[in-house]
Amino acid sequence: MQTISRDTLPARLAKRTIDSHKGDFGSVGILGGAPGMAGAVLLAARAALYCGAGRVYVGALDERLAVDPVCPELMIVAAESLPALPHPACLIAGPGMGNSNSARRVLAQALRVEHALLLDADALNMIAGDGELLVSLQARKAATVLTPHPGEAARLLGISNKDIQSDRTAAIQQLVTLTGATIALKGHATLVQHPGQPIWRNTSGNPAMAAPGMGDVLTGIIAALIAQGMAVEDAAVLGVWLHGQAGDEALAVGGGQGVLTASEVSRQARSVLAQLTLGKVQDNLEAGALDRLDGSTQAMP
User: Which runs of E-coded beta strand occur in 109-206?
Assistant: First the structure.
C-alpha cells in the first residue's frame, strides 16, 4: 500500500503557457440535480470550475435550474439535452440524481460515452440495483472512476456497511474486480486503486469534513483534473489528497472550528492546487513578471 501525501503525489498539473485558451483545459459535464437536490450538481460544477476545467456544463434533472448566481460561468441545460462534450472531457453522473425513470435513462446514456466517466452517489445506487446498468458499466472501454462512500460500496457488493469498514482493503479490491474501474473508497483514510495497480491510502482530511456535499466537491475536483489531461488513476489520487488538504487548510483559516461546509472546501481547493502547480504565491508573482519581460512561454493563469 502506498501513502498519499504532498511528497508522493504521482502527478501534478503543468503551469499554463502564456497563450493558453479555455479549450486547452478540457470539458466537464455533470448529470444530476433532481428537484430538491440541485445543490449537488452545483457543488460538483463549481469545484470543477475552481480547479481549472476549461468548460463546465450542468445537465440538471430539475429543469427550473437556469443559472447559478454564484458561478454564472456554468452552462446549465436540461439533463437529457446535455451536449456532447468537447474533448478532452470527463462526464460526472450521480450527484443529486435521484432514482426516477428519467434519471435511469440519463445514466444509461452516460454509460455509453466514449470518454472518461465518473460515477457517484445515486448513479452508484441505481447500478447496485440494476443488473443491466452494471453490465453496461463492466463493458465500458473508456476510463471510469467510482467514488463510493461505505454505504454505496456495500450496496454495490451486496454486503453490509460493517463488512466494508471492517476490511476496507478487501472491499476496494472487490469493487475494482466487480467494475473494472478506478475506485476511490471514501471515508477516514480514503483508499484509491486502479485495476492492476497498488492501493493508495490518503493522509489528508479531518472530521470537520463530515458534512453534506463533500463528495460532490470531490467528484468535481477529480473530473477537472481528468479533463485537463491527467490519467484517471493519477487524477483520483491527486484529487483525493487535494480535497482533504483543502479541508485541512480551510479548517485552519477558519480558526480551527470543528465544522466545515463543502463550499468552503471547494474554494480552498483552488488555492491548494495553485500551491502545487505554481509554488509559493510571492515566488510565482516574481517569476511571472520576469517571464513577461523575457518573453517566456510560462505565466500565471
Answer: 116-119, 144-146, 182-185, 191-193, 199-202
Q: Is residue 282's pLDDT more than 90?
A: no
Encode burial over 115-152: b for 16+ CB neighbours within 10 A, e otherwise: bbbbbbbbbbbbbbebeebbebbeebeebbbbbbbbeb
Percent of the chain past pLDDT 70, that is, above it, reads 91
For residue 235, give the nearest of 246, 248, 224, 222 by alpha carbon.
222
Residue with cell 458534512: 211
Domain of 169, CATH number, reads 3.40.1190.20
Residues with Cβ within 8 Å of residue 6, at least 6 apart in sequence: 241, 245, 276
Nearest to 96 by CA among 72, 79, 73, 113: 79
Mean pLDDT score, 63-86: 94
Count up the domains in the chain and report the number. Answer: 1
Element (H, E) at 153: helix 150-157
- For residue 138, what are the domain limits? 2-294
Q: Residue 221 pLDDT more than 80?
A: yes
Name the residue among 215, 154, 143 with its Cα closest to residue 186.
215
Span 253-271, average pLDDT: 89
The label of the residue with cell 473508456 reads 142
Look at residue 256 in the predicted model and tell me its pLDDT. Answer: 65
Q: What is the pLDDT of residue 255?
A: 62
